Amino acid sequence: MKKILILCLSAKLLFSNNLELRSYLGSEYKSYLKKANNKRSNNKAVTFQNELKYSLDSSKLYSKIDILKDFTEKERDYFNITEAYYLYEFTDFDFYIGKKIIFLGSLEAYNLVDIFNRQNYQKDILSDYKKGAYLTGIDYYFKDDSKLNFYIKGFEEDLNFASEKSPYYAFGNLKYKKKPLFSNRNETFSFLTTYSKTYDENTVADISYGLFYGYDNYILFKKIANKYRSFLFQSTKLFTYNTFVIDSFLFKIEGSFTKIKDDKEVRLDDFYELGFGLEYTIEKIIKNHNLGLIAEYYKSNTELTNMNNDLFLALRYSLNDADSSEILGGIIKDFENNEISTYVKYEGRLTDNLKISTDLRYINSNSYLNEHLRFSCELKYYF
Q1: Strand partners for 190
Q2: Which of these, 82, 88, 95, 319, is most buried using a 10 Å CB contact count?
Q3: CB neighbours of 300 closer than 8 A, spacing ≥ 6?
Q4: Where is 259: in which H helix or E strand?
Q5: β-pairing verdict for 234-246 and 249-260
């Protein structure tokens, strides 16, 4: 009887008009044209993603599953439930529980206030792929179209990195253990609250303020018995991220102040981070294509970030098609350490079901990467 009931419920779900399914199967290739001599020259992998949305009158179920299988480096393999949460809509607020990505930020090169979710380092350490966080929270909507969010984050997952033969292995000849250590020995919850409001009368603007208390987005590493361990420390952050639109100009600001929680194992000073951005769009430069001119500057007084005195310049060529195809090329100059990073990337659709993303990146730094040149390409077939 139980099996029959489960089959009936599954069939009802699968054939419901309230169900949306979207998946892709991908092929990923990375070629390392400049690297350390003892590191691998390429990675070849298959990727898969499935998104599920199931909507009822006042609630929604959402899940996103990501799978990667690397044929050259098994340490990159993963099966991630990136997001899986339940949403219930009340009159004035939404309630969430499950695993979710909360995006924070406004800048292009680096979102210094995007502090809630950890990065998926197995996918790509040079790009921004986030992993969902276990949480419960609410989004409360005021009558003036502003919004207050409050989230409680549960436990931190293991932090996985590439293998010792990867160009992105930062621990030299020593091993790395993926289980993180915590500054207060026993893991506790993290808390995030944000307030945001949109203005569209005289000047179009999105203003957001936030407070975070918990395990900082930056990671320290400790060497214990010839192995490196990731070490998570606690902090309190006050932050803001804002955008202002004036004619064809888009102004962006991000800023934060971090107060480190006192701990005998953490020898860090409190620090600030600031980012200012300007984007000017030349519309219909060719047919309906737009050209964006981007400039951003980052300043900080901590060595935890690579963006402590950096200038970012970029061009964005948007085709304004149904798939938002664009070419983005940029350069980052680090005046503090005399380092440079450049990239060109393209994302678009080849056919109705086939999408391509490709990039070429060059880095010349004082870090373990030294001089690094990489070409990567991923094809995704949607069904």
Answers
A1: 153
A2: 82
A3: 112, 271, 272, 273, 274, 307, 308, 309
A4: strand 249-260
A5: antiparallel
Cα–Cα dist 36/4, whole Å: 59
- In the chain the first and final C-alpha atoms are separated, in Å, by 34
The answer to whether 220 and 260 have CB atoms below 8 angstroms apart is: no
Tokens of residue 307, six digits: 């963006």
Q: What residue type is 74 in one-letter code?
A: K
Q: What SS3 string covers 346-366?
A: EEEECCCCEEEEEEEEEEECC
pTM: 0.90
How far apart CA 81 and CA 79 sit, in angstroms, is: 7
Are β-strands 227-232 and 175-182 bridged in parallel, bridged antiparallel, or unpaired? Answer: parallel
Residue 365, classified by CB atoms within 10 Å of its CB into exposed (0-12), middle (13-18) or buried (19+), is middle
Grouping H, G, I as helix, E, B as strand and the rest as coil, residue 74 is: helix
Residue 136, C-beta contacts closer than 8 angstroms, at least 6 positions apart: 95, 96, 97, 151, 152
- CA angle, corner 132, sides to 131 and 134, nearest 5? 140
For residue 156, the tally of other CB atoms under 10 A from its CB is: 17
Distance CA 152, CA 34 (A): 43
Say how far apart CA 245 and CA 198 lie, in whole Å: 11
For residue 313, give the amino acid letter.
L
Q: Is 2 helix (H, G, I), strand (E, B) or coil?
A: helix
The tens-digit pLDDT sequence of the chain (383 residues) is 444 444 445 545 555 668 999 999 999 999 999 998 889 999 999 999 999 999 998 999 999 999 999 999 999 999 999 999 999 999 999 999 999 999 999 999 999 999 999 999 999 999 889 999 999 999 999 998 899 999 999 989 999 999 999 999 999 999 999 999 998 778 999 999 999 999 988 789 999 999 999 999 999 999 998 899 999 999 999 999 999 999 889 999 999 999 999 777 788 999 999 999 999 999 989 888 999 999 999 999 999 998 999 999 999 999 888 777 999 999 999 998 899 999 999 999 999 899 999 999 999 999 999 999 999 999 999 99
DSSP string, 333-346: EETTTTEEEEEEEE
The three-state secondary structure class of 85 is strand
